Amino acid sequence: MKIKSKKLGFIIFIFIFCLFVSNSYSQTNEINAPSAVAVDAQTGRILYGKNPHLKLPPASTTKLVTAMVALEHLDPEKKVTISKKAAKTQSVSPRLMEGEVYTVRDLIYLALMRSVNSAAVALAEASAGSEQDFVKLMNIKVQKIGAKDTKFINASGLPGKGQYTTVYDLTKIISHALAYPLIKEAVNTRVYLVRSQDGKEHFIQNTNHLLWSEDNMIGGKTGYTRSAKHCFVSANRVNGRVIYTAILGDSNRENLWRDTQQLIAQAEDVLTGKQEPVVKLSSESVVPVSYKSKQKLTKKAKTTKLKKTSKKVTKNAKANKRTI
After folding, report:
1. Where are the stretches annotated Disordered (predicted)?
2. Is 221 known as a binding-site position?
3. Which of 10, 66, 82, 125 is deepest in the core (most CB within 10 A)?
4. Where are the alpha helices (DSSP H) in the chain?
5. 251-284, pLDDT tens digit by residue?
């Protein structure tokens, strides 16, 4: 009897241990951010999504659109004088002073690598005469590229009422942004030396820390404000394909990098057939994603259309005054 009891106890121990390990593994694989997505650039398929159409503040991911619109109106070697308004815009270092002159190229690097808000405002004013008029061009641009759930109120991404995007829209934005050689070069540059016309130098480092650890990282754009929290959109090479990832509303930078790496891993698992594409619309519902034509939807999928459910999630989030 004692031998049987010991054997039974050992089996129970192994069972509990396996449950613990399995639970720990699943928690490790969870995406912490309220909204995240991984998209196959070649097919446009969502390989993994968590509330992909939830509207949230964009923070400095905005500057990808700022850079695109600016480069459509300005030569990279054009010299731009920093205005009083641009100089006084709340921003991270390096501080650009009123009257200083920089090339459009250097302002692009400052905006995309270091997220300098004053550089974004300077580009806007040089392109359209005022930031307000420039924002109109930004909103026209995102509509043209199919980012229908995105709207801007400024060129920098600083918080304000009526400004939002989605992780799914961000993948569209970065896909178009990378078609501009200067943008592609800037988001893939680790360090850069900016020099004003009068010789003032700024040594800047890219805020995308994954450039140092991920060899297959093509580039990306970070963002942060207190209301938006930590945001990131990136392009990566995975199994010979390009994968876009986007995250909005992460709690800290460590989670931001971890979640991005997890999105890349999830995408690779789908591409190699280890798992099926999945979209999580809330903590309680998971919708399998199929891209096969004429395939019948499951009963659950029939009642949970992706776009309608995503809008419902957004509506509930606003009602509860919290982020899902």
Report:
1. 298-324
2. yes
3. 66
4. 2-29, 63-73, 84-88, 104-113, 117-128, 131-144, 167-177, 181-187, 253-271, 299-303, 306-320
5. 999 999 999 999 999 999 999 999 999 999 975 4
* Active-site entry in 91, 115, 118, 234: 115
Q: Which of 35, 50, 55, 63 is the catalytic position? A: 63
Structure-block tokens of residue 43: 């097919």
Closest CA to 271 of 9, 40, 27: 40
The DSSP secondary-structure symbol of 73 reads H
DSSP secondary structure string, 48-72? EEESTT--B--GGGGHHHHHHHHHH
Domain ranges of the chain: 31-320
Kindly state which CATH superfamily the domain 31-320 is placed in: DD-peptidase/beta-lactamase superfamily (3.40.710.10)
Tell me which residue has tokens 């990832």. Answer: 245
Q: Can 5 be counted among the known catalytic residues?
A: no
Question: What are the mean pLDDT values of the chain's consecutive 10-residue runs (324 residues total)?
Answer: 53 46 45 97 96 98 98 98 98 97 98 98 98 98 98 97 97 98 98 97 98 96 97 97 98 97 97 95 55 39 40 40 30
Catalytic, 115? Answer yes
Please identify which residue in the block is written with the tokens 């002159």. Answer: 101
User: Which of 35, 55, 60, 91 does the annotation list as catalytic?
Assistant: 60
What is the spatial distance between Cα 43 and Cα 270, in angstroms, rounded to a whole number?
13
Burial 43-68 (b: 16+ CB within 10 A, else e): eeebbbbbbbbbbbbbbbbbbbbbbb
Coil, strand, or helix at residue 235? strand
DSSP string, 237-265: EETTEEEEEEEEEESSHHHHHHHHHHHHH
Q: Is 23 helix (H, G, I), strand (E, B) or coil?
A: helix
Sequence-distant (6+) residues with CB within 8 A of 146 are 172
